[in-house]
């Protein structure tokens, strides 16, 4: 009887994990649900969030994360495969040197004003040492925000 109860308990636990998608996360890495993730995707909103928190808001995912969810850039399907998400957090190489360079400084980029379909030309660029710039013409020119 004891073996049967252990087996039954294990079966129930596995069933619960299977149907809930195992929403157990390690301490310090709690998942943000759609209900608790406030979408911030304006220049001012994202710049203020970056300044206050040192990271992008929870509605941003990297290109690799989006691709893992089924995103195909040429299909403009991000809103379908990752509702409420925007692309952000990938390294921006600053090849043209239009943004200020400094030893050890890295730049990252994030889409701004994205709602669905194909990505637009609005981006925010933020550095490892706190600089924040915007571009509305897909990297042709930049304006400092912070």
UniProtKB/TrEMBL annotation:
Enzymatic class: hydrolase
Annotated compartments: Secreted
Keywords: Endonuclease, Hydrolase, Nuclease, Secreted, Signal
Coarse class of the protein's main subcellular location: secreted
GO molecular function, a single term: hydrolase activity
Its EC number(s): 3.1.27.-
Signal peptide: 1-24
Active site: 109 (proton acceptor), 138 (proton donor)
Top-level taxon of the source organism: Bacteria
Similarity comment text for this entry: Belongs to the ribonuclease N1/T1 family.
Protein name: Ribonuclease
